[in-house]
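Input/output pair, single chain:
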Amino acid sequence: MFSSLRAYVRSVFDRDPAARSTWEVLTCYPGVHAIAAHRLAHQLWRWRFRWLARFVSHMARWCTGIEIHPGAVIGRRFFIDHGMGVVIGETAVVGDDVTLYHGVTLGGTSWNKGRRHPTLGDRVVVGAGAKVLGPITVAADARVGSNAVVTRDVPSGATAVGIPAHNILSGTGYEDSREAHANRLGFSAYAVGRDQGDPLAQAIHALLDHAVKVDSRIQTLVAQLRAAGIDIGDETPRPSFDPAYLNKIVD
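Output:
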């Protein structure tokens, strides 16, 4: 038990530069308290003391602001940073070395019984305010950007951003250094990185920019043809095109 606790505390130091001492981690981190309470609640749930398990979970929620259903399966060295507002549903499965930030929801999209919550693979990181919904799988080493709404599977090593979330695939393989990988992806737990805007919006912006350039070149060709005395006839009336407005509404 003590070796497991030491390993957990070391994992907190690895993922939170604000941690200064073991005593601070054990006494001042609500995520640590929530996980400890969940271990007890989950064991009671397995022993079929369902009301008592829910009561322990409820008291932990009252004390920490973190709600973990006692039926959820949580792996080793699971770290919740800050933690306020985290909700983890009954059928959620969380792998080893997973990190969640505040405001994360691992929720369901159905009232039917059975598996209805997400499965998170090993070493997944979910940014602040993200919502991962339904019986989907976020594979090992994936990341979810802050405030993303994920309703589809996220493959290993990818980063999901946007509403609804779109997957951005990283390079092949996963680097051993978590920080180096995060920097390469531009991932931020608190805000989407500067190069990780919604891919759909980026595509629309690129198409609009291309359309403006093509329209400008056509106007130049028309002017040169007319200057050369070539009759190209009247232009066919078309709806006005305002790229600035279109860019604004997809931002």
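Confidence is low (pLDDT under 50) at residues 172-182. The longest strand covers residues 105-107.
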